[in-house]
Write a structure and sequence with these properties.
The structure holds two protein chains of two kinds. Chain A is α+β, with helices and mostly antiparallel strands. Chain A is built from eleven helices and ten strands. In chain A, the strands form three sheets. In chain A, strands 1-4-5-8 form a four-stranded mixed β-sheet. In chain A, strands 2-3-7-6 form a four-stranded antiparallel β-sheet, covered by helices on one side. A two-stranded antiparallel ribbon of chain A has the order 9-10. Chain B is of the alpha/beta class. Chain B is 28% helix and 26% strand. Chain B contains seven helices and 13 strands. The chains are: A alpha+beta, B alpha/beta. The interface between A and B is medium-sized, with 16 and 14 residues. Bound molecules: flavin-adenine dinucleotide (FAD).
């Protein structure tokens, strides 16, 4: 067993941290205010390698894998949670095309994603089917050499910052009736709906997509017709859950740092409050949670890099880290007293951001549905 | 520069303690030296501007960028960072006899490093380091190499055919100079914005070489290195305590405002 990061990984972390600490803070006020993602950072992030971290070199990426990606997302999230939120879904958009796309699709759609010319977007959630994926209403019907899509997708990350979306729609009834498509935003009948006004992760764009007899060329089918559920599940459980977990991990790291800074700077009774045992216990708890989550997140990513199954570990890392980030942020706010709920202090944003990670990429309950199956499997009679 | 085989730039870089961790620096009261254990190192920030200048010259005209550093062997990862930024290779000058070198001794050692490398057009340095802040090494190095030296450089334009235009900051303005390599230049941060280290750069750096040279290879006169070779002797080092100054200003509101304004001007706040 080896829990050490390699020299390469340490350098990667240092490089991302430097980029994140310099480039993101000047954008954050506007992100909080407008809810817009800072698109001007996309190219610089591509130059560093952030957008193409999962994409193989032959398609313009650096192909460093999931542990490296978790480092990247954690470091971005330590500065601003909205960044890894948007980037992790961007990576989902890359992974889904890399895993299921034809060579032609990869050439056309993967390369611009790795190069930061547009953002990745995966649209599964329907107003009628979030957790209940199969319950979605968005439909696709083959007519001649085109699929005609009708319906609506909601809560879609990068909806308005992406030039093409991977959309899951119904081509028939039942679990085997879902199919995946790459839909160009300029396709006839493709429409952008509203932008969501979230209370956290505000700088990550979330919005609606609408399809009104939207024409999608047949060659834009991603994977097999009827294979859409597998496309969605693989992408969400491997890339999505590890990515959301890493996002929450970054927020949790920031929570720990903010709490520690405040506790040692705030003086009461002539001493820093970090000398009070109650505050020390809060710090010990946050610290322990952070270490647990680090282990969960990096192990899930490591399994994926080894080509091993990581769906259960991803679900565990995702639900546990998101909840840990929320709980730690609440404790950090308690450490701050009333300062903690003031906009001048970061912890209030960290709590808002942490709460938003909880349903994104699948709720805790759904993660537990997955995990309960694994937990009970050995006892099956 | 087409007439030349090699357009080589040497960039001197120094590993320094990361200022984000300066709160952890303490002083050993017995030896009067700084305790730096556990404080991560970084490339001296201004040296990154020097490296950026070297890299952009190479990217435009071709050639080679060589990093040169005098430091203990544990500084190798810091040099690796410079290689990840894009430098082609690195030379680490490391020998126990170098310990305690002041700026002049350091310049002797770096000069030997430059000679060891061979031909070069440019030696670029940061104007000063954030830990020593003497701003002496670069000029001393130029002197020992018997080369011209320009400090406080804020503009550097390397044209084809042994010509370059240099902008130098002086107290009340700028001087534009024309120069012919080889030359030793030290730069200010206004010169450029250093590029970020890319992941492809990190991968590429893994197969680049860092040559570690001791004084056996360099052959600097032992009387010119280390504590022996250092004419500067530190008389003392003391820890300054920073306390908030307090002053009470009395009088009528007008008088108070007047007094405050005076103080604000006197302390150069506005
Ligand atoms: C910031 C953000 C970004 C998002 N980005 C995307 C995106 O890019 N692409 C995308 O497709 N979707 C995205 N989503 C949508 C997200 O995946 C869904 O919101 C999530 O899957 C939950 O679906 P729902 O909101 O419809 O809740 P519902 O499914 O309506 O769930 C309501 C409640 O019922 C519980 N529940 C549901 N089923 C079960 C069950 N079987 N057992 C126990 N409890 C259950 C849920 O846990 C929850 O508590 C995003 C959401 C957010 C908040």
């Amino acid at each position: 067993m080896d829990f050490k990061f390699s020299e390469r990984e340490e350098m990667l972390r240092k490089a991302v941290r430097e980029f994140a600490e310099n480039e993101i803070p000047p954008k954050m006020e506007a992100m909080e205010e407008t809810g817009e993602f800072p698109m001007e950072l996309l190219k610089p992030m591509a130059e560093v390698g952030i957008t193409g971290i999962l994409t193989p070199a032959e398609y313009g990426g650096v192909g460093l894998g999931y542990v490296a990606r978790t480092i990247v997302l954690e470091e971005l999230g330590r500065v601003c949670g909205a960044m890894p939120m948007a980037l992790q879904v961007h990576h989902m958009g890359c992974a889904v095309i890399n895993d299921f796309g034809t060579d032609a699709q990869k050439e056309k759609y993967l390369v611009p994603l790795a190069k930061g010319e547009t953002m990745g977007c995966v649209a599964v959630t329907d107003p009628t089917g979030g957790s209940d994926v199969v319950g979605m209403k968005t439909s696709a019907e083959l007519k001649g050499d085109k699929y005609i899509l009708n319906g609506r997708k909601c809560f879609i990350t990068n909806s308005h910052t992406s030039n093409y979306w991977v959309v899951i729609a119904k081509t028939a009834e039942g679990a085997k009736g879902l199919s995946a498509f790459i839909v160009d935003k300029e396709a006839p009948g493709a429409k952008l709906g509203r932008k969501e006004n979230k209370f956290g992760l505000r700088g990550a764009n979330t919005g609606e997509l609408a399809f009104d007899n939207c024409e999608v060329p047949k060659e834009n089918l991603l994977g097999q017709e009827g294979g859409g559920l597998a496309v969605a599940i693989k992408t969400i459980s491997e890339t999505g859950r590890t990515g959301m977990a890493a996002t929450a991990l970054g927020i949790l790291t920031a929570v720990y740092e903010e709490a520690g800074k405040f506790a040692t700077e705030r003086v009461l009774y002539g001493k820093p409050i970090s000398t009070l045992q109650a505050i020390q216990f809060y710090m010990a708890e946050i610290y322990t949670q952070l270490e647990i989550c680090r282990l969960l997140c990096y192990r899930a990513s490591w399994l994926k890099d080894q080509g091993m199954r990581c769906d259960n570990e991803g679900a565990m890392a995702k639900y546990y880290t998101c909840e840990a980030a929320v709980n730690a942020a609440k404790k950090a706010i308690e450490i701050h007293g009333s300062y903690g709920i003031m906009k001048e202090y970061a912890v209030q944003r960290l709590l808002r951001d942490a709460v938003v990670t909880v349903p994104s990429g699948g709720t805790a309950e759904i993660a537990k549905v997955v995990l309960a199956r694994a937990a009970l499997a050995p006892f099956k009679k | 520069m087409a007439d030349k085989e090699m357009n080589r730039t040497i960039v001197c870089i120094k590993p320094v303690p990361d200022p984000k961790h300066w709160n952890k620096v303490s002083m050993d009261p017995d030896t009067q030296t700084l305790r730096r254990e556990g404080i991560p190192g970084i490339i001296n920030p201004l040296d990154k501007h020097a490296l950026e200048a070297a890299l952009s010259i190479r990217d435009a005209h071709g050639g080679e960028v060589v990093l040169l550093s005098m430091a203990p062997p544990f500084a190798a990862p810091i040099l690796r960072e410079g290689l990840a930024m894009g430098a082609d290779r690195a030379i680490l000058l490391s020998d126990p006899v170098f310990a305690g070198s002041d700026t002049l001794a350091t310049a002797h050692i770096l000069a030997a490093g430059c000679r060891w490398i061979g031909e070069f057009d440019l030696v670029l340095c940061g104007n000063m380091t954030i830990d020593g802040s003497t701003a002496q090494v670069c000029s001393q190095l130029a002197e020992l190499l018997d080369l011209p030296n320009v400090m406080h450089v804020t503009g550097l334009d390397r044209q084809a055919g042994d010509k370059m235009t240099i902008t130098q900051k002086i107290e009340h303005g700028h001087v534009r100079l024309e120069a012919k390599p080889p030359i030793v230049i030290s730069v200010r941060k206004e010169l450029n914005k250093p590029r970020y280290t890319s992941f492809t750069g990190i991968l590429a750096a893994e197969s680049k070489t860092i040559d570690v040279l001791s004084n056996k290879e360099l052959g600097v006169d032992p009387n010119h290195v280390g504590l022996n070779g250092s004419p500067t002797k530190m008389a003392g080092l003391e820890l300054r305590e920073f306390k908030r100054a307090r002053e009470r200003v009395g009088g009528s509101p007008e008088e108070i405002v007047q007094a405050l304004l005076e103080k604000i001007h006197r302390y150069g706040i506005i």
